[in-house]
Amino acid sequence: MHKEGQISIDYVGGAMIFFVSIVFVVQGIVGTIPQYSSIAESNREEIAAWGLSTSLVSDTGYWSDVYDGTNWEDNVITGKVKRIGLKSPEGSGVSREKINKLLGMDYKEIKKLFETGKDFSIEFTEYAVVKLSGEFYRGGDIDGIETYNGFKPPSDGLGGADRYMRYGTISINGSERYFLASFDDSDFDGLYVSDSIDFSSSEKLEQGELKTLDFNGRRFRFGLGSSGLSTSNGKILLVERVMGRIGRRIPTSEETVTRVKRYSNTQKSIIMLDMRVWK
User: Fold this and answer.
1) 48: closest CA among 118, 124, 121, 123?
2) Across the strands, what pairs with 81?
């Protein structure tokens, strides 16, 4: 009897230890489910963002009725658009006309054509490149560098100090502007803009400042430092403008939003597509 009782107690004790172990294992698994579920959801949103943005920049889009074609932007009002794409049919890059048409469409219609259950927001920014390829020296002749080169240098902000000057021009939407950057010891310290090569009355733009220019209806901003000027070689200036935005209001918690930036180009500009996707 004593021996049989001992066996029963050992059996019950072992069973309880096994049961408790199972509980701990189950609790551990259940505890990790929300974590893996969150990771899976984030991956799904990232896949959706990359898929949608890739489709936009690499596909021309398509419409179909009695006839069909890739110029869906001309057939939105007919309701015959089958697929939205921004790629230009004339070559590499995206079409400005397609972007402008997309920006004017109804969000629900776009979401339907995207065939997605995710909410999203897309902002388009256009960058134009000013090549500061010309160079001269203000203050005297230096071997290999022309003095002034026909320019009328600005008097404001430079005083009588010697300065290297780099200049370039850009034409956007039929409007031309001249840019002039001054620098000392390879560090830019001023930027000027003018409608001609006469900069004598141009105001100096300091580091960190931004200025907006109107190119026949297209308003671009530019500036020195992180806002635009590339100092890696000191010969490139970017001017930028936000073309527009479509989509839902972006959630305040960035943790729930997946963001993807894609770059393409038109004939004369760089286009950035900034897409955010969330559930």
Assistant:
1) 118
2) 63
- Residue 64 half-sphere exposure toward CB, CA atoms < 13 A: 4
- 127, containing H or E segment: strand 119-131
In a domain, 253, yes or no: no
> What's the pTM value of the predicted model, to 2 decimals?
0.75
Model confidence pLDDT, tens digit, residues 178-227: 988 877 655 667 788 999 888 888 888 877 778 899 999 999 988 765 44
Q: Look at residue 156 and tell me if it is in a domain.
A: yes
Domain span at residue 229 reads 133-234
User: Nearest 10 degrees: CA dihedral of 67, 68, 74, 79?
Assistant: 80
Is residue 157 in some structural domain?
yes
Q: Is 138 exposed, middle or buried (0-12, 13-18, 19+ CB in 10 A)?
A: middle
Residue 230 in any domain: the answer is yes
- The pair of three-digit structure tokens given for residue 234, joined into one six-digit string: 């000191």
Q: Which amino acid makes up residue 208?
A: G
